[in-house]
Structures are given as C-alpha cells and as structure tokens.
Specification:
79% helix, elongated, mainly alpha
Length: 116
Amino acid sequence: MSKKIVAGVTAALSLTPVFAFAAGENLLALLNLIQTIVTRAIPILTAVALLYFIWGLVQFIMSAGGEKHEEGKTKMWWGIIALFVIVSIWGIVGYIGNVFDLDPNSKGKPPVIEGL
C-alpha cells in the first residue's frame, strides 16, 4: 500500500513543472482578478465596519450603565477587529500584487514576460 502512495506522489511531483508552466498565465489572471475584486470591495467593507463601530459607540454612550452598554462595547470590539482584518487583507493582496507585478486595471490579461 505504501509503495503505491510513494509511486503516486513521485509521479505527481515529476509532472508538477509541466502543470505549473501551463497554468502560469491562468494563475496570473486569477491573481489579477482577486486583486481587482478586493480592491473594489475594500472601501465598501471598510465603511460597513466603521459604521458598525460607530453604532456600537452610540449604544455604549447612550446607555451608560444600562443593559445595552455591554452590547455596544461588544459591537465596538467587533468593529475594530473587522477594520483590522480588512486592512490586513488589503495589505496582503497589495503585497502579492506588487510581488507578481499585477495591474488591477488589466482586466485579467496576464503580463507579458520578456524573454519567454
């Protein structure tokens, strides 16, 4: 049983460069599409997270000592966490876009690589 697994893994790894070369353009197009979607969604998601934080802040202030006080505090924390996650994803996608030299306005066309 283990010899079959080793043989299968070896065969798959020996064909990996062929698949990687063939999928290179598709991978770049996919990364470009992901960068475009995230770039367009970031301002909307950031606004929603900021509004959620402000909503929690208003609840926190308006019900000082009341039962909505803790609910407002929780909403503020989740708003801060959402803003942190959104900005982090924005930074990671931007970094990946810079590493692969992707242009979010190229509409899925892979970049031309000189010398290939």
